Amino acid sequence: MVDIAKEPGAGGPGAGGPGAGGKAAGGPGANGTTTDGAAPVPGASYAISALFADVIRILGRAWLPMALTALAPVLMLTAAGFVFAWQTGSDDPFAGGDIPLSAILLFCVGMLGLMHSYGAMCVIAGNAYADRPADLGGAVLAALRRLPALTLVALAVFTIVVLPVALLFTMLYAIGPAVGGIGALLSIPFMVWAAVSLAPALPAVMAEGRFMSSIPRAWSLSEGRRWSLAGSAFVAILVIEIVANIVGIGSLVGERLMTPGTTAVAVILISGTLGELIGWIGYGAVASALYWGLRALREGVADREAAEIFA
């Protein structure tokens, strides 16, 4: 497997545009683009049916290795919540009081692990998109090398998406709680729009060896399609969330209805972990599908060219 952190765009588009490898020959791509000298389709839209097809394509071929990369950090985050509730008697970290140090450490390590797993999932999803077998070990090592970039880019994207809404909510809440609540609800479309527009940033970190330039790269890929992409991705994420919450409802049952004991703890941990895993790998598949689908439409990147990046 190529060290994609050091060799962006091997045989395909690199950080600055199409690489020297040229267009590979082959059949039709997932979005209707052809791999026989595929050409950009600037006016084409990435329809919701194409997004779902790409997400299903990725998950159908790579759900297990994607889940394996996320299992340990998701377990840590689930354990952090469990330790917090056990030691404080509350499941609300904002209720006041001291937060246990063990819960803080589990949370921090778990979040760092999630950033690593996201990078590994981007590589695995890229291989799945290109009809290549998953290279779990190579994906884990590549994400480890890019972990600082992944973490800082994720923090930057989070700040861009959340900070304007947080400032708006603070100003409106000063007028009145009801006004602040209305402002928060009205800001949801903006958050979805901004998050989806920047979703290709982390896949770009892995596939193109970028750092902060992955953010304008994601912005340029989504240009002219942002609202339609926001609608399509919102529906995809809603479906993922529904499935994840159905699976994870056992944790609520164990917490609220079951007699405290080993069985209740096992139900909470297993159900909560499975629900979080489904959500996490679903988000990774959507982000990767957006990245590769938009490159196919905007740059004419064909499936086999994607394969060359991860060869």
Classification by helices and strands: mainly alpha
Main beta sheet, described? none
Distance between the termini: 5 Å
> Roughly how many Å is the radius of gyration?
20 Å
Q: Can you count the helices?
A: 11
Helix content estimate: over 70%
Global geometry? globular
Care to describe what's here?
With 311 residues, the protein is mostly helical. Helix content is 71%, strand content 0%. It is built from eleven helices and no strands. It has helices at residues 48-88, 101-129, 136-145, 147-175, 177-186, 188-198, 201-208, 214-221, 226-256, 262-299, 303-309. It is globular, with a radius of gyration of 20 Å. Residues 1-38 have low confidence and may be disordered.
Set out the fold topology:
Elements: H1 48-88, H2 101-129, H3 136-145, H4 147-175, H5 177-186, H6 188-198, H7 201-208, H8 214-221, H9 226-256, H10 262-299, H11 303-309
Helix pairs in contact: 1-2, 1-9, 1-10, 2-3, 2-4, 2-7, 2-10, 4-5, 4-6, 4-7, 6-9, 7-8, 9-10
Notable characteristics:
single chain, 311 residues, mainly alpha, 11 helices, 0% strand, globular, disordered N terminus
